[in-house]
Amino acid sequence: MNKAEMFRALHHNRAPGDPLVLPGPWDAASARVFAEAGFPALATPSAGVAASLGYEDGQVPADEMFAAVARIVRAVDVPVSADVEGGYGLAPKELVERLLETGAVGCNLEDSEGGVLKDPRAHADWLAEVRSAAAGRLFVNARVDTFARGVADPERAVERAALYVAAGADCVYPIGAPPEVLPLLRAGVQGPINVGAPTEGGPTPAELGARGATRITFGPGLQRRAVRALREIVAGLRP
């Protein structure tokens, strides 16, 4: 079984309350910390990687993002999925080739651009092309941005998720979904659901799993907490 198959298998046959927890490394050093802690796989956050490279979220040039992902992959033995935002305008075949060159086994792909939701059917068609080009070599996590763009009705997220699953997405990620709507999403979505965990306070990963989450990711939260901890250390160095 190759790493992509291993990663895909981690998402299936999970008991309620036992979601797959995927810490988000922003560089090679943080990736090693997470891998050494025993996590079976990792998922990079675009905002965390951007911060490590000195950019605002969404402003990293594609070449720099792919290079950063490649460094993270090289640093660990566990499978790594990469947040590549909206795909940087690359054609599906080129996007897949660039991802595979980094050694990543999966990708996170957004369905909004410039703060505006994309047409869901057109996006589903694009995801189908990505899935076809990947030929099983990449786990496709399709982000659903309705909640993040102010659309509170969970049915709108379910509708988009259904289109993306039908297009071949391995998992859907209704980013920003309130914890209380997770049971509704779980009832309406076929297949794995990615949920973003609050890094401080709020439901635990186990609690989110009990509400319907298949896997938990952290966005840039862990990187930001690390920066806060570093600031506290630095403050203690002053004479």
Report on the structure:
There is one protein chain. This protein has 239 residues and is α/β, with parallel strands linked by helices. Helices cover 44% and strands 13% of the residues. The chain has ten helices and ten strands. The protein has helices at residues 3-9, 28-36, 46-53, 62-75, 92-102, 120-134, 154-166, 182-188, 205-211, 221-235, and strands at residues 20-21, 42-43, 80-83, 106-109, 112-113, 116-117, 139-144, 171-174, 194-196, 215-217. The chain has a five-stranded parallel sheet. It has a three-stranded parallel sheet with strand order 1-10-9, with helices on one face. The longest helix has 15 residues, at 120-134. It is globular, with a radius of gyration of 17 Å.
Radius of gyration: 17 Å
Say how many strands there are. 10
Number of helices: 10
Main sheet specs: 5 strands, parallel
Low-confidence stretches are none
Q: Name the helix and strand elements from N-terminus to C-terminus, one letter apiece.
A: HEHEHHEHEEEHEHEHEHEH
For the largest sheet, list the strands in their spatial order: 2-3-4-7-8
End-to-end gap: 55 Å
Helix content: 40-55%
Structural class: alpha/beta
- Overall residue-averaged pLDDT value: 96
Please indicate the percent range of residues in DSSP E strands (runs of 2 or more).
5-15%
Shape: globular
